[in-house]
Design goal:
mainly alpha; 434 Repressor (Amino-terminal Domain)
C-alpha cells in the first residue's frame, strides 16, 4: 500500500448526473426505476436534467432502489478534506 495514490478528480458531477450514472451502471431505464420507486418517469427525467431538485425524501427512496447511500446522490462532489460538516 506504500505506492497507493488517490485518483485525481477529472470532472464534477451534479446531483442529477449522479442519479443518472448510478441508474445506468445498474442497467435500469427511467421507467424501470420509476416502477421500483413509485416516482414518475417524467420526474426522474427532470431530476436527472436538473429541472427539479432531488430533495431528501426522494433521495432516500432512490438510494434504496439503487442500493447506495443517499449521500452519494445528494452530495456527489463532497470532499471531506476541503469541507467539514461542522462549518456548513
Amino acid at each position: 500500500m506504500k505506492n497507493f495514490r488517490p485518483a485525481k478528480r477529472r470532472v464534477g458531477v451534479s446531483v442529477g448526473e449522479s442519479v443518472r450514472i448510478i441508474r445506468e451502471l445498474q442497467e435500469l431505464s427511467q421507467n424501470a426505476l420509476g416502477e421500483l420507486t413509485g416516482i414518475p418517469q417524467s420526474t426522474l427525467s427532470a431530476i436527472e436534467s436538473g429541472r427539479v431538485n432531488l430533495g431528501l425524501e426522494r433521495a432516500k427512496v432512490l438510494a434504496r432502489a439503487l442500493k447506495c447511500h443517499p449521500a452519494v446522490l445528494v452530495f456527489p462532489d463532497w470532499d471531506i478534506k476541503k469541507e467539514s460538516a461542522a462549518f456548513l
